[in-house]
Amino acid sequence: MKNALAFALFFLLSLKAFASYVLIPMDADSQKNHLKAYGITYWTLEKQLKVKWLLNYRGGSFLLPDTESIQKECQIRGISFEVISNTMAETILEDISSPSKNMEAVVLEKAPKIAVYTPSGKQPWDDAVTMVLQYAEIPYETVYDEEVLNDNLLLYDWLHLHHEDFTGQYGKFYGMYRAASWYINEKKSAEALASKLGYDKVSQAKLAVALKIRDYVIGGGFMFAMCSATDSFDIALSAEGIDICEPMFDGDGSEAGYQSKIDYNKTFAFKDFILERSPLIYEFSSIDMTRKRNVSKTTDYFSLMEFSAKWDPIPTMLCQNHTALVKGFMGQTTSFTRDEIKSNVLIMGETKSNGEAKYIHGIKGKGFFTFYGGHDPEDYQHRVGDAKTELDLHPTSPGYRLILNNVLFPAARKKKQKT
Questions:
Q1: CB burial class (10 A; 0-12, 13-18, 19+) of residue 151?
Q2: Any signal peptide, and if so, which residues (predicted)?
Q3: Is the pLDDT of residue 337 over 50?
Q4: Torsion 304-309-314-317 (CA) sign
Q5: Helical axes 398-408 vs 34-46, angle rounded to 10°
Q6: Which of 76, 108, 140 is a domain's end point?
Q7: What is residue 326's three-state secondary structure?
Q8: 8 Å CB contact between 402 and 349
Q9: CA pair distance 107, 327, nearest whole angstrom
Q10: pLDDT for 74-92, tens place per residue?
């Protein structure tokens, strides 16, 4: 009898030792396709399997259950992976849990449903987020003004804002492109859509959309925005009920003394900014650093901040990378003037020497927002009509990893942020 019990115990212990996990390493040396690694993690969540995100362990690795289908998908997608025993996994998790280690294991529970705010007819390569979602094979749906105003955002966990102008000034492209056919056509389309939705002006329609997005975040949504969608969103909120548009944009003059009427209490991230009045200048306000930065392409890098993984897992998740120094890139809104960022907003990526923030995050109500300056992390100065970025040439892009960190963020089992 004793021998039988001993054998049974040995058998169970052996099974435990030989049970295995799939480790997706995310450090610089071990992973050949960081971007698609996020896709396989999302795919695993879609199968209703839980994943552990190992914050600050080998570049923010993922620990997946070991199945034949997961291994096969990794091979098909060209993702580096390691099969490790249950004993090895427990050793790694024990090491991560040590109070002396700035690491944490966060459980990812459910694949978030993703919406991208973008007008119909836009190609995926017009926007870095849609481009990397397609490359990583992460599914998403598109919404625009009509869907937002009809409360369709309630169907989604995560929303990305296209490089949009929420102020009704058509991206401030007037000075350079007012005679271009694409500008004329887009202006007509925007006016027709505003009219269809029951608004006299595009600025009024865009404000209504911005307010719906604000309410979505306050109610618990996750919002991610890049380039001009960042500052133009806050400007629109701050100018609620104030006409800041010149005649070429909305058919009548702007409101006298409108700068003094701006309400910074209504914004998500920014304060004390000065609006750019001239319709000929390709700029919304003093928030953006593009015209002030004096940084050459060869020296343009920003640093990711380090947070406590155990005490502040949210910003730690959003900053996971295989390098702390990321190449800079430009956009209509390239980066943010540090002095014009509210004190309750976390700066997660910055260029200290230039007094600019590149990557910021905050809480609004029950929800979260992240603003990321610039247009395309692997196209330094993207211009209208430029060819799309081929992500097959940049499978380990640190700049694109920051986008995908935000995509997976809503899947995490929430822990209260301490700071």
A1: exposed
A2: 1-19
A3: yes
A4: positive
A5: 10
A6: 108
A7: strand
A8: yes
A9: 30
A10: 999 999 999 999 999 999 9
* Distance separating alpha carbons of residues 336 and 124, to the nearest angstrom: 26
Q: How many angstroms separate the CA atoms of 357 and 255, rounded? A: 31
The model's pTM: 0.93
- Residue 14's Cβ-count burial label (10 Å; 0-12, 13-18, 19+) is exposed
pLDDT digits (tens, 9 = 90+) for 48-62: 999 999 999 999 999
Q: Which residues partner with 41 through β-bridges?
A: none
Q: Tell me the pLDDT of the chain averaged across its residues.
A: 92
Is residue 415 scored above 50 in pLDDT? yes
Q: How far apart are CA 320 and CA 346, in angstroms?
A: 15
Taking residue 290's Cβ as centre, other Cβ atoms within 10 Å add up to 16
Let me know if residue 419 belongs to a domain.
no
Q: Do residue 79 and residue 190 come from a single domain?
A: no
At 416, is the secondary structure helix, strand, or coil?
coil
Residue 417 within any structural domain of the chain: no
For every residue of 345-356, DSSP letters joined together read SEEEEEEGGGTE
| Position 418 in a domain | no
Alpha-carbon span 187 to 406, nearest angstrom = 32
Q: Are 170 and 280 found together in one domain?
A: yes
Range of the domain at 72: 2-108
Which token pair is 145? 């003004």
Alpha carbon distances (Å) from 52 to 37, 64, 81, 142? 13, 7, 15, 29
Take residue 135 and report the two structure tokens written for it.
């490359």
**398/54 Cα distance (integer angstroms):** 17
Residues 58 and 184 reside in one and the same domain? no
Helix (H) / strand (E) containing 403 = helix 398-408
Residues 6+ apart with CB under 8 A from 187: 170
The arithmetic mean of pLDDT across residues 167-177, rounded, is: 93
HSE, side-chain direction, 13 A CA sphere, residue 241: 4
Check which CATH number belongs to the domain holding 297 and give it.
3.40.50.880
Q: Which amino acid is at 199?
A: Y
The dihedral built from the CA positions of residue 317, 321, 326 and 327, taken in this order, carries a sign that is negative
How would DSSP label each residue in 198-264?
A: T-SSHHHHHHHHHHHHHHHHHTT-EEEEETHHHHHHHHHHHTTT-----HHHHSSPPPTTGGGG--G
